[in-house]
From TrEMBL:
Protein's UniProt name: DNA-binding response regulator
GO terms under biological process: phosphorelay signal transduction system; regulation of DNA-templated transcription
UniProt entry keywords in alphabetical sequence: DNA-binding, Phosphoprotein, Transcription, Transcription regulation
Coiled-coil regions listed in the entry: none
Aminoacyl-tRNA synthetase keyword on record: no
InterPro entries to which the protein is assigned, alphabetical: CheY-like_superfamily (IPR011006), NreC/VraR/RcsB-like_REC (IPR058245), Sig_transdc_resp-reg_C-effctor (IPR016032), Sig_transdc_resp-reg_receiver (IPR001789), Tscrpt_reg_LuxR_C (IPR000792), WalR-like (IPR039420)
Domain named Response regulatory: residues: 6-122
Gene3D superfamilies: 3.40.50.2300
Chain ranges of the HTH luxR-type domain: 151-216
Pfam family, one: Response_reg
4-aspartylphosphate modified-residue sites: D57
């Protein structure tokens, strides 16, 4: 029997918690194991519930989502965190990603994306809703005329995040620069790089550039 993904919901609105819980319980391998209405209790609640995934609102009473993430960072992450927020401000997105959140959804698209986000983050992938991803990508696309603005076309081999990584590598961004642009750690960048090489059966950066040009990820 496959173990279920244990999910904890943290939001200051019980109606939203109930709605998400009802939706998530329709997925056979999901189990909503608890909820929090107050930021002060989130860490202890998650540990008690032995949750795999925390879906966390930014606007929480007593202690907001950013402060909760800081607490997780100090004490050690007991689970993976997906931010669910009414805000899509880049400063907030950047801050929570640097603090260790693995996903970011806006509430207006939660119903459409939350199941996919939980499955991706549980598998150690990152997940951003389309609107958030496009906003992140716009930061560096403005300053790179060679970047294909239609980079988000479906790719049968690479994930959207891997397409971003390979594109930036080909534009000669360093691992540190990529980490700063995408709000992820240098180690995460390197892990993505290795996975890309393995998927594409490529041994070096020249091979990555050839792939990017052939598939029109960047302009020649």
């Amino acid at each position: 029997m496959t173990n279920k993904i244990r999910i904890h919901l943290a939001d200051d609105h019980q109606v939203l918690i109930d709605g998400l819980s009802n939706l998530l319980q329709t997925v056979s391998n999901f189990e909503v194991v608890g909820s929090s209405l107050n930021g002060n209790t989130v860490y202890d609640d998650v540990v008690k519930d032995q949750a795999d995934i925390l879906v966390l609102d930014i606007s929480m009473p007593e202690k907001d989502g950013i402060e909760v993430l800081k607490e997780f960072s100090q004490k050690g992450f007991p689970c993976k965190v997906i931010i669910l927020s009414s805000y899509d401000d880049l400063k907030i997105i950047k801050e929570v990603m640097k603090l260790g959140a693995k996903g970011y959804l806006t509430k207006k698209c939660a119903g459409e994306n939350i199941i996919e986000a939980i499955e991706a983050v549980y598998q150690d992938q990152e997940y951003y809703s389309d609107a958030v991803r496009e906003k992140i990508f716009s930061i560096f696309s403005q300053n790179n005329p060679k970047l294909n603005k239609n980079v988000y076309i479906e790719n049968p081999i690479l994930s959207p995040r891997e397409i971003e990584i390979i594109t930036l590598i080909c534009l000669e961004y360093s691992g540190k620069e990529i980490s700063e642009q995408l709000f992820i750690s240098v180690n995460t960048v390197e892990t993505h790089r290795k996975n890309i090489m393995k998927k594409l059966h490529i041994k070096n950066t020249i091979g990555l550039v050839k792939y990017a040009l052939k598939n029109k990820l960047i302009a020649s």
